[in-house]
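[User]
If only I could read backbone structure tokens as easily as an amino acid sequence. I have put the entry right below:
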Amino acid sequence: MGILPTMAFVVRRRTGQWEIRESVTTPSGPRSRTLVTFGVLTGDVLARAEEAATRPIDPARLRRSAWRSGARVAEPEVDRLSRQLVHRMARGDRPNPALSALLSEGLGGRDRIRSDDLALWVGASPEERGEALVDLLSLSDALPPRPREPLRFPRLSTRGAGGG
């Protein structure tokens, strides 16, 4: 059995801010401790809470807890980007065929787009692409040189060269 997620929840502070807290068991009984304080629940806030938690947290559960408690919850970035893509496609813009195929595969009922080289490469930043190129060049420098055979030239014949 894997590690159970932490019992994390969202509460409002007197200051108007919000907290993600987790329940912990102590020798004195159950207690809660603050993982992170926020104004708007974002992916960054969830990541900081995950780092501070003693056990894994469930981001979807925390979003639901935030909505129930009245906290402002930012739209997940993937939803925002999806909304933009749908809008642009409705205006006639289309992604290139390779991206279209990956999108069709990912939206065709599967939970994830396959994590092959193409799917990971299409979103790589110029810095990541540069690092990959440097790694590739370093690899090629580390390969042993191919053994070379001595050059062999055809023998030159002096007969019939027609001299005088």
